Structure formats: structure tokens, C-alpha cells
Amino acid sequence: xxxxxxxxxxxxxxxxxxxxxxxxxxxxxxxxxxxxxxxxxxxxxxxxxxxxxxxxxxxxxxxxxxxxxxxxxxxxxxxxxxxxxxxxxxxxxxxxxxxxxxxxxxxxxxxxxxxxxxxxxxxxxxxxxxxxxxxxxxxxxxxxxxxxxxxxxxxxxxxxxxxxxxxxxxxxxxxxxxxxxxxxxxxxxxxxxxxxxxxxxxxxxxxxxxxxxxxxxxxxxxx
Amino acid sequence: xxxxxxxxxxxxxxxxxxxxxxxxxxxxxxxxxxxxxxxxxxxxxxxxxxxxxxxxxxxxxxxxxxxxxxxxxxxxxxxxxxxxxxxxxxxxxxxxxxxxxxxxxxxxxxxxxxxxxxxxxxxxxxxxxxxxxxxxxxxxxxxxxxxxxxxxxxxxxxxxxxxxxxxxxxxxxxxxxxxxxxxxxxxxxxxxxxxxxxxxxxxxxxxxxxxxxxxxxxxxxxx
Lengths: 223, 223
Fold this sequence. Notes:
2 copies of one chain form a homodimer. Helix content of chain A is 47%, strand content 17%. The first copy, chain A, has 2 domains: 4-79, Winged helix-like DNA-binding domain superfamily/Winged helix DNA-binding domain (Arc Repressor Mutant, subunit A), CATH 1.10.10; 85-197, Rossmann fold (3-Layer(aba) Sandwich), CATH 3.40.50.720. Chain A is α/β, with parallel strands linked by helices. At the A-B interface, helix 1, helix 5, strand 8, strand 9 and helix 9 of A face helix 1, helix 5, strand 8, strand 9 and helix 9 of B. Chains A, B: Homodimer. Chains A, B: Keywords: Cytoplasm, DNA-binding, NAD, Repressor, Transcription, Transcription regulation. Chains A, B: It comes from Tepiditoga spiralis.
């Protein structure tokens, strides 16, 4: 079997999507599924589903498909979701507030236990029930007391690397980075970028491409 | 040259990242750059930068590098960013509010001109200066009047496909989907998913992998 750290990132993300898909099937009372069914629900190829799962050994039987309970158990283990992860919001502005209050977090095993800012006007405000915004200078103490492993970074871009350096120095293991800048981090810290402006530009690329090709087609038709 | 619609999605996203990188260089008064410099700033390989750019012909001269102004002009054209794009927020909850007020949008050519909800308590509230939240039933009228091409979807997951169908029926060209469900859309509508829970699970996969491999290493060392 391939070393876990060698599994391609797109495969890992798809595994998380498969996990969500079969969790839904399971909630609907369904007990068996197939790569074909998962693929259809996600508008991808069944061969892709089989290839992604094959990195982790044999799950299903040819022609019989997957037992949902077993596959769910295995995916939960692979993704590290057998435990609840304590998360800190670093930067308690509009975006930090929205993420802290996003119901999908706790439902998926992520618990926002702390929130930080440097704006004195925000310190002490409740960001979500049970969590008040603390001074960023208290991060070091909080991360130990509350066993925080992941930081969600929603600070202004110009301070992102500085803040990232500080949370890393304090032992954070992973950063979900909402700042539109690439962060450097040592090898033993994971970074995931969520950059929705880049996604918007992928949209405008596609829309523009479609319109250009349509125009070219019309030109050819009129020629 | 490859048809634009055949360019791989990861390449398109990297082009948007290169554009941001050289915009920064340009703002710093720098006039020339190289694939090596761009790659170093983004922690990727220079060969990747060259390959991605090569889809669109020759930009630089071997050994001389890229003229930033020319490359910037070309990337802006490729990504469809020569114009301002009008955007609607569909679902004006916490996340919709945070995105509407995200300063990076207008700075990158995206203008939030409308916002919608179905919650009567929200209708008429100001989501950002100059934009009040309207009833979703007015979407059809607004999209024409305000020339909206892109919708940012921040509605609850259970209504996401229904709402997507409605904005598509009204002629939207692209959807930035923040809902944690895969959306189906006809071929002439682009969808980009922003799913930060999936990104969190990619983080927990990596953290767990690292910890497992460390434990295995320690076991081997003690054996």
C-alpha cells in the first residue's frame, strides 16, 4: 500500500466527498452501494471512485459493491475523523464569525473552542454560545488548555504570515487559510487554502471561454 | 493551441494565482520576472509555471523572463478579468454577509450588486452600503436590470439544488457554491464549489497520517 503521505491531495479531498455521500446514503437507511452509484451522485467516473479507494486496499466485492457501514467506518478512520477536533478561529471579523457559526462544522467533527482577535473592541464579545473572543496574546495559553490542533485563519492578508508563524510556534498542527496569500510553514504543519476569489476567477475563465468559443462558432457558421 | 475549454481546471486556478502574484510584483514596482521567481514565491516548481503558461502560447524569452506588464495584460484577458463582473449573493445569512463585505471582491473585479433571501425579517436590511436584501422572488427582475452573471450561493444545503435551478433558469452563467452538496447544472453554466469542511478533512487526513507515520517510525526505532 502507498504511504499515506504519498496519496495525491485531490484523492484525499474526493475521499472526504465520498464519505459525505455515503453518510447521506446511510442516513437514508441504505446499506449497500457501488462505485457506480457514488460516481453518479457526484457526477464523476466510477473508475475514479474505484481508483481513489484502491489506495487503501480492497473495500468492496466485484459485482456486489460496498457495505456502507464498513466503508463509512474505514473512511472515517482514513480521514482521521474518529475523534472530535478542537479548532480556533484566528481573526474574529465577519468571515471568522460566519465560520464559527457554521452548523456544518460541529456536525462534521470540528468544534470551535476559541476565537481570537487583536481589536480591543471585539475582545470579550461572544462569537458563538460559550465562546468569547480573546486577545491573540492568549493564544499560547489557550491552545494548551483546550487541546487545539487546528487554526482557521481569517485575518487581513498583510498580517497572515506573521500570525501563521505565531500559531505554528505555539504548536498548531494544521491551518485552514482563508487569507489570499500563500503561507510558508514547516513540513510538520499542514496548510489548506480556501481562496474563493481564485474560484471566482476560474468561473470567469470558463464563462469567457464559452462565450469566445460560441462567437467563433457563429463566425464559422456565417463564413 | 489547446481549446480553452480543454485547459485543466488546476491550471486555470494556478493562472489566477500567478496573476495575483505578478500583480503584487507590479505594485512593488518590479518590471521583469521569471518562472523561477514566481515558482519560489508560490512554493511550486518553475516547470509547472512554464507548462501552465505554455497552454496560451509564448509569453517570455528564454533566459530573459517575462515582462510583467505584458504577462499581466495577457493573464487578465485569459481569465476574463478585463471587465467588472456583477455578482449576486443568494442567501444573506452570516456567510453571505461576510462574503458581500469581503474587500477582496471588488479589488479583484467582482461587484456585489444584489443580495437575496427568503426570510421576511431580512428583506430590506442593508447587507453592504448601497445594497439591501431583496426577496428571492425578485431575482428574475434583478438579474436583467443589473446585468448579473454570477451568483454566490450561501443557502442551506437542503434547498441548494432548488435555488440553483431557479438562478440557472433565470440565465445566470456561473455559480460559486458554498453549500456542501454537489450541484447539477447544464453544460452552459459553470459551477465552482467552495467547501471548507472538505478542506478541514484534508487537514485531518494529513495530521493523522503524519502522526501514524511518526508512531511507526518510533516502533521501528525501538525494535
